MMS19 nucleotide excision repair protein (Pipistrellus kuhlii), 356 residues
Amino acid sequence: MAAAADLEAAAPTGALWGLVQDFVMGQQEGPADQVAADVKSGSYTVLQVVEALGSSLENPEPRTRERGIQLLSQVLLQCHSLLLEKEVVHLVLFYENRLKDHHLVIPAVLRGLRALSLCVTLPPGLAVSVLKAIFQEVHVQSLPQVDRHTVYSIITNFMRTREEELKGLGADFTFGFIQVMDGEKDPRNLLVAFRIVHDLISRDYNLGPFVEELFEVTSCYFPIDFTPPPNDPHGIQREDLILSLRAVLASTPRFAEFLLPLLIEKVDSEILSAKLDSLQTLNACCAVYGQKELKDFLPSLWASIRREVFQTASERVEAEGLAALQSLTACLSRSVLRADAEDHLDFFLSNILQGM
């Protein structure tokens, strides 16, 4: 009798069947919120929702499968805090497998994985499993903007809550993210992607042999060339992107050998905004660089800055050039304080005095 009662409890009710059919076959959106509300109230369990969706999830028509998974994902996004660990395990395995499904289904699958990435009951190891599956099965940049944003959200959630597990992937995590980001063009997504790169560096993830690749996948946006469209509902400004990218480029001395030639090139360009951005970025870099990073570029840096200080028609560029010069001098001064350091400060100041 007890077993029969359990079976009856797990079986979908007629009302649930009706809601599922209205969503999947009737193309109505309202039933998803109703099912989620009923799960929250205890009327149904997530297991019952899966059971009710059974035929939809196995339907040979991709669009029908997509609607079924979409309903489940929308319920999970509202009810992920109610999931037990064993339910999370089964759902993760189900969603990972569905990443191999038809391309029409993938966006709904990713939304479900985003819900699962928020689960506090997610067992150890599954965050890595999910990301490996995404890296292997999904060509992220072929997806629409909103679905690419979903992938960035999954990565961000796991970096916030499962840092040590992700670090266990070593440089494979860095390489996987580079593949995800490579070619991104939407400013909404770039703001999130730049934050992820900054966290990779500042939180000491293993970059392995991919330092130059990580630099290339971010520096290709420098200098930022973005004008928000009129009445932009997202409110993203050019300055937001400039500061976010600058925080990445100036976050590590390991970028210096690639970044400094780029900054010199852009300071020497004819574009005023590029000059300003480059000098301000150089200023920011000096806070984390030492003379080791700067020494090979000092003559070129001085030649470029000298032109902007003495020959520019822009007071803003002149001011930024002088600020960069001050930052370079301060950076070299810090190194002189070490007894075993070469005195590149004296060489740099001599060049400046000779050129004035």
